[in-house]
Specification:
Layout: E1 3-8, E2 13-18, E3 21-22, H1 23-30, E4 47-52, H2 62-70, E5 77-79, E6 84-85, E7 88-94
Amino acid sequence: MPKANVTFEDVGATVSVPAGTRLIEVSEKVGAGITYGCREGECCTCLTKIVAGHENLAAPSFLEDQVLKDNLAPRHHRLACQAQVLAGDVIVRPA
């Protein structure tokens, strides 16, 4: 199974994860400061800045895309509960 590296700038931790892992799952394990409420992609509390490697994430689902638009999320921001790491290196920080 392909692996990817996720770095959380706020805690200075880099973790190797299997492809398809959601950012929120890794965030919880390393104690990063990404807050969340629903884990279903509807509330936008887990909005996360993708500092680098946005091309290494799965494309946003229709639901995530709509929530990002409804909440006027800046460019290169994703919902950590929905964003899946596919490969390569991704650097994130809480929004």
